[in-house]
Amino acid sequence: MAKPLNIIVIGIGNVSSHLADSFQKTKQVKLVQAFNHQSSKKTVAYSKQYHCEVVTDYKKIKIDADIYIIAVKDDVIAEVVKKLSALKLKGLVVHTSGSVDVGVLKNTSTQIGVYYPLQTFYEKAIIDWSSTPLLIEANSKTALAKLKLLAGLISKNCKIVNSTERLRLHLAAVFACNFTNALYVSAFELIEKNIGKKDVALLTPIMLHSFQKLNTVHPKQAQTGPAMRNDKVVMKKHLDLLKSNKELTAVYKLLSQLIISQQSK
């Protein structure tokens, strides 16, 4: 067997933990080290779970790993880059962000790139890595080949995209995942506050079917509801129920108008 890819991850949050989970599924990838800004129970648990060293001093980061993955919040990447730039790293340095340009890494190594899983990560989430899109980008053929190798070991769904395309995909994912989840929160709260907490289960079948039908039909053709029919009587009844909540009233009106506009095209 070929020598495994040695990986070092910067950060031990949700994304880092899920990446570490994915690496454990293949013997051709080895997580040799992780970095966290301070020692805690979490660093000890991470080290034990993923069988790797966790360091809290940038100077203790090994400089000869194959790939360094920066898995931190977007607004912290620039700060991490400053610290890594002083280490003269020999391997490929990538970040996992959907919205940050690859150029931010230019001073960290001669090889830079992006390893972006188009997925939603939260604690204890069960991720199907074989189907999760891994969107990759690199500044050279050598770096890209290394990323292709890593991505191919983890997922059957890998695609090369540039930073502009990745940002557009990230935006689309926010609409498809983050915004829809916020609407689920509001739907649950409407039932919990006005009917009963146990009754939120009544929404499960329609939520599941709403997603499943997208496997066979375009969402525009799958649209149903009062706004799609431009049923002003029903929409007025709904707005009457929401009159004490200005925020949801505004959302209801805005989304209804969006549906009407989409269906008129």
Short description:
With 265 residues, the chain is of the alpha/beta class. The protein contains 10 helices and 8 strands. Strand 4, helix 3 and strand 5 form a beta-alpha-beta unit.
Relative helix content: 40-55%
Count of helical stretches: 10
Q: What is the chain-wise order of helices and strands?
A: EHEHEEHEEEHEHHHHHH
Distance between the termini: 56 Å
Structural class: alpha/beta
Largest sheet: 8 strands, mixed
Strand residue percentage: 5-15%
CA gyration radius, whole angstroms: 23 Å
Record the strand order, biggest sheet: 3-2-1-4-5-6-7-8
User: How many beta-strand elements?
Assistant: 8
**How would the global form be characterised?**
elongated
The average pLDDT score comes to 96
Regions with little confidence, pLDDT below 50 for 5+ residues? none
Question: Which terms would index this structure?
Answer:
265 residues, alpha/beta
Describe the model.
This protein is an alpha/beta fold and 265 residues long. It is built from 10 helices and 8 strands. An 8-stranded mixed sheet has the order 3-2-1-4-5-6-7-8, covered by helices on one side. The N and C termini lie far apart (56 Å).
